[in-house]
Every structure is written in C-alpha cells, then in structure tokens.
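=== Structural record ===
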Amino acid sequence: MPVVNETGGSKEETPTAAWIGAAWDTSFDTSTTNSYDNSKTVLLAEGFNLVNTAGGFAGAKVTSVDAISAVPGSVLGTFEVSSNLTNIYCLGFGANVLCIVSHTIDPVPQLPELPEQTEIYFLNTTTANSLTRVTNSDNENELIMP
C-alpha cells in the first residue's frame, strides 16, 4: 500500500498493508468535492497475509494516518489471530470510529449457514491501543446502524 502526501512527497510503500477506513470531521463540507477538506484520519492495517496460519488481517497492526500530510500517528492496536479476518471497513466522525470485521467460523458450518460472521470493533484515532472488540456472538452477524 503506497502512502503519498498531497504534494506527491513522503512516498512510502508497505506491501502487506491496506487502507481500512477513515474518520471524518464532525460536519461534512458539502461545498467541496475534495475529500481532504472533510477527512481527518485514515486507518492503515499492516500485516495482511492470506497464507499465514490465521489468514487475512489476523495479527495486523492498525495505525492512524493524517489524511492530508500522510504522517503516521498512533498505533491503535493489533487484531487478534484467532480466525481469518477479512473485509474490514471502519468509519467514524471526530476521533471515534466503529469497524465491521468479517471473521471466519471454525469449524465451518454446513450450508445454508455462511462460513463467516461480522463483528464490531471500536477505536479512537487519537488514543494508542484503543482498538477494542465490542461484539463476540457466535453465529451472529453484527452490523452498525446509522
């Protein structure tokens, strides 16, 4: 995943990383289409790997990155390695963010049950080690409602 600031400088690439979401200002400026005017922080997960024992984002480190300057901020935590973690999507306003994370189910259930479920995580983009799993319900898909 390349990181480049708005001037084209500060180029850095992390091949096993992915952007997983963002935190926005408390209000959205509708007078512009420039997302930099509205975003505060983007979230980077480092450690994506489909061939490791758990797979996906298991064990990945989550870091906040300033959306305009591309300067890394706090390390917000590390995802557990208990299951394959995929399809991470995080969104929030201000510093508080909720994330939906897909976990594989082990052992894999029989159809028509799906082989994965979604869980909710919380993090604060300004607080180190704030990544917290909020839900942990077997065979239940948890969703964030607006």
